[in-house]
Design a protein that fits this description.
The chain is α/β, with parallel strands linked by helices and 298 residues long. Helix content is 22%, strand content 24%. The chain has 7 helices and 17 strands. The strands form 4 sheets. Strands 3-2-4-5-1-10-11-16-17 form a 9-stranded mixed β-sheet, with helices on both faces. The longest helix has 14 residues.
Amino acid sequence: METKGKLIIIGGAVDKGSFTEGVYDKDVTKNLNFFETGILKRLIEESKHKENSRIEILTTASKIPKEVGAEYIKALAHLGATNTGVFDIDKREQASDPENIKRLEAADVIMVTGGDQLRLTSILGGTPFQDLILKKYETEEFIYAGTSAGAAAASNNMIYQGSSGEALLKGEVKITGGMGLINGVIIDTHFVQRGRIGRLFQTVVSNPRILGIGLGEDTGLLITHSSRMEAIGSGLVIIVDGREIKDTNITQIELGQPISINHLVTHVLSKHDLFDIKTNKMHIHTSQYAADLGVPVD
């Protein structure tokens, strides 16, 4: 059965603040400015009832949930979406509360904020709340939108630890189970500014069947049918494809030693570019060869 829901995963922002890690609780009122690039507006447009859609904000990953939730409510209202609410879930038992389940059943969109993705999965994992998110995503016109930690946790497996500087040393990248909305990929955020490409390299070389997705700042991906990805926002998306890897030393070296990889393929997407997970094919929206292929150039 084809998935009916949509995913919108967002990398975060740089100069305007970001929902993640050390800068997470600084200047929170500036953190939503990156939605001016059109990502939040696109979310509303893609939702079932547009401005009238029921949008619930999930701040579980955050250490400052009240401030974050309030900022999202303001940002959505600025764009005409006022049918909104904020889930107060910071304990596992709250993810089984009948009132929270009832609210989620009525939601058209769940917006999962940033913070700590391990906090998010350790609280929601294996609860009726997570089960209902997955069910709605599979069977309804439902959107799971996540920024930073909320994006990283969307896939079946997620990166939860690993410094950028040591990411290509064997064993330095830590992976665990995510929310399970999409298989065969792993997502990293704040990708360009924080130099995290090594984290995806190690993840992909460990199992080349997994497609690495690196979301730059001010950038998102709209994923439909569990396979068609469109870059949205103003930044870059990096796709790391390991299927054509010819050689590596990963099984021959000790923990902490540098990893070598021969012939690792990468793709770079900017706004409106497309990538299909099933075929591993990319379409550049304003390709310099579009005229040769008979494709109109915008």
